[in-house]
C-alpha cells in the first residue's frame, strides 16, 4: 500500500503527456544510523547530498539519526546545526537535568525544551518529507516504528539511551533507544516504499575489531597504554584499551556495553538486509558523548558523501525506472 501511494505521487508530478509518460525516478530512502554525538555527522551528510541533488524522498532515523532526520524533514536542519555548533562542554552539562525516578540518570526535559523551540508542535504525518523514527519497547523488546504523532516525542523515544535518559511513554508504550534493535534502519525505508536505500553508518571504522580469544591466558601481555580520555559527562570517549590500569568504572562499562551491542547488531542487520549504497563516516576518534565536537563531525559527514558520491550515482542509475 505504501509503495503504491508513493508511485501515484510521482506519477502525478511527473512529466510527459499524450500517449507517453516519462519514467518515474526511483524513490530514494535514507537510513540514518545511531551513534550518539557522532550523529552530528548526519548534518554534513544531508547538506552534501542536497548540494549534489540527491535529496531523499524517505528519511528514517534511529537515535541521533531520528533527531537530525526529523529536523531535516521539518525544514529545520539549519536550526539543529546552529544548536550543535554552539555546544561546549559546559553547555552540554547545562542541558542535563538529573532524574530522581530511578529510570535514568537524566530526565531529558531541558533537551526536549530546546527541540520544542525549533520544532514547535510539528507532527510526523504533516512533514513535507516522509519520516519515521525507530524505538525499542521496554519489556518486550519490540521494534517500534514511529510514523505518526508529535515529532519531538518520537525523537526523545528514539534516543532514550538506557540508563542515561528516562524512557518515554507514547502510544501507551514505554520506549527507549532504537539502537538496541535496529541501529541502521534500512528495513524501515524499504517498508515505507523506497526503491533504493542509502544507509549512513556512523560506526563504519569501528566494525570488525571484535574477535574470538580462545585462550586468554596465552595472550602476550599488552603494552602499557594510557587510560582513555573522559568526555563532558565523565565517561570514556572511546572503548577502554587493553592493558589499561585499574578496574573499569560503571560509566565505562555502560558505554562499552552499548558500543559492543550496537556493533554486533549493526553487523547482523547489515548482513541480513544490506543497503543499495552505504555512506561510511569515519568517526572512530570521536567519543559517543563528545557533543561539543559538532563541527568536526559535520565535516566528516560531508567528506564521506564526497567519497561515496560516484557510487551513489552509479547505484541510482541501476534502479529500474518504470
Care to describe what's here?
The structure is a single chain. By secondary structure, the chain is an alpha/beta fold. 38% of the residues lie in helices and 14% in strands. The chain contains 10 helices and 10 strands. The protein has helices spanning 2-13, 41-51, 64-73, 77-86, 89-94, 109-119, 151-159, 186-191, 250-272, 294-318; strands spanning 28-32, 58-62, 104-106, 130-137, 143-146, 163-165, 168-170, 173-177, 196-201, 277-280. Strands 1, 2, 4, 5, 7, 8, 9 and 10 form an 8-stranded mixed β-sheet that branches. It has a two-stranded parallel ribbon with strand order 3-6. Strand 7 and strand 8 (173-177) form a beta hairpin. Helix 3 (64-73) packs across helix 4, helix 3 (64-73) runs antiparallel to helix 7 and helix 6 runs antiparallel to helix 7. The longest helix has 25 residues, at 294-318. It starts with a helix and ends with a helix. 43% of the residues are buried. The model is unreliable at 1-18, 104-108 and 221-238 (pLDDT under 50).
